[in-house]
User: Fold these one by one.
Assistant:
Number 1:
Amino acid sequence: MSHPSTGSPVAPATDRKIRVLVAKVGLDGHDRGAKVIACMLRDAGMEVIYTGLHQSPEQVVEAAMQEDVEALGLSILSGAHMTLFPKVRKLMKEKGLENVLLTGGGIIPPEDDAALRKLGVGKLFGPGTPGHEVVDYIRAEVARRRAGSKAPAKPNTKSKGARK
């Protein structure tokens, strides 16, 4: 749903924009994809906070809490996704951020994607995913969470880059 005067993404019954934290965790220095996604989300009307490179899981979760975000996107191209996503998810639970969407992207094998989903990580996106799919997913999932629904949002996932 969009605000009638601005077209910005807002949830039903509120004028609050979606706030998203985009983070690079660990020693991964490949930040181009994270910056591109951050710009796409911003251009879609979301408020985006980008943490920069080499953040610890603790720093990222603390920033998510301080910034009152509704979505946290991790960009992980280092192969450390099976360590970093679970660590961030655990810290989010400890800090009471269970309702914050944890999503992200990188080169993540399907079997790892499935294991991360079981831990409560949202949809993960691979290289080549059209930006509008990331935007649509975050909008749908945040709206669902704001409405209190427990079923995950199911946007179009036909691109080769998106994980099912």
Number 2:
Amino acid sequence: MRQHTKLLLFFFILFIYSCAGIKPLPKLGTYEVEQRVAYPGKVNKIVLQLPSIGEKFRVLCGEETLGHNVKGNTLETVWAPQYWYFETKDGEETNAPTSVHCYLKSEVYGQEVQYHIATFEVKPFEYKKSYIKVSKKHVDLAPEDVKRWQEEVKLQKEAYATAELEKSLTDKEFIKPLNSKITAYYGNRRVFNDKKNSWHSGTDMRARRPTPVKASNDGKVILVKDLFFNGNAVFIDHGAGVITMYCHLSKFKVKQGETVKRGQVIALSGNTGRSSAPHLHWGVRVQGKWIDGLQFIKEKGREQKAQKYVTPKVEGKN
């Protein structure tokens, strides 16, 4: 009995000491919450002045944790609603919220805190519809083709999982991989052979002959592969949740795991995979979603002042 009492006393003293080691949270500041509009497939740039106190900063929009980059006391990230935000591929309506709240979260003295930084009102965006004729084998897939495609989806997910999320791999502006005419824009509804409904997840650029394709920015090659739909394709991780993809290539000029520079030739354009004519399909993936790459370049390069962190007033001081 005496031994049991001593043991209880020991744990009580240990508890008191552990509680004494927990610092009380200081009075935290706030941000002026931005009210903004977002459209499916269109990115929004978020720039924040970080609080002077705290660590392990991260940004969440809805339930998504966003890749980001911190430079000095400034955090930058981008967010976009997915293309199929208001409806499914079968045309059925979703229950997606029309308002999405974004928060900056961090740890202060080991305790999680959050700051409301923005609210996005998500509105529909009308994309064009086009009708495309391709080989029947690319619409009515044989069982072996379905199996190959499923394996490739798994392979791509594994590659995406290796991407850097907590820092950017470049401090340069993004560029187009080709300076040629755009033949198909992001977001267009695609009806293949009058039966299969799909959508265009990137931007098509004219390339009538094997043309050098350039990396849109500095980064690391995370996948080089011949894919059923995309043909010969290169995927580059640029950090902070941004990946670019280059498809239908005729020849690779880089290898998986290689570090590349902006403007470096990574491949020659071609007509491989599901392609009705020689061209380059260029895709931009942000926070796990394929978005409008051209709008991304414009928005990412736009000068934007950081949202200021308003330090709380201390009582007795002006």
